[in-house]
Amino acid sequence: MGFKKIFYFALLAIAPYLGVAAMYFLSEEKILILVLLILLEILTFALTLICVYKSQKNKWDAYSLMRAVMIVKLIHIPAYIMNFVFAAMCFMMLFTIPAALIYFITDCIALVMSGLVVTSAVLRAMNEKPRVFNKYIWVIPLQYIFCVDVFATAFIYKKLKTEQLNKVINLD
Description:
172 residues, mainly alpha, 0% strand, elongated
């Protein structure tokens, strides 16, 4: 995987953590840093769209793409838990309900970004091996539901890994 792809997946991996950082800098009234974090989130979203486009246009390997996004989704789990806990605490106090909304929106943006990449990987798998992977189209809508997305991604990753191993074994 090239440097550009690693840079993109590193940005995607930290995306949900930006919500926590943004709330900290908002409470400290450091607006410039907050604006930079928002711009970084926008950049990551734009790079997600570019990544999805390029993965389809350049026919990236579905297994490699899925492996990278599986790692990213596992990195996201602590951020989702942390954002949920902070949002729940903010929701308990009337004057901090907007902060809870910011945590939720940050999580939703990260979920959509990682879901788009998994969708791209599933579509690539369907193009590479239509007979095997056409029946797994149901994984795509699950990418946009919290918690279920990780299990669906792990499921399709396992299928891709098995197919990859079968391809290596059949070459010998």
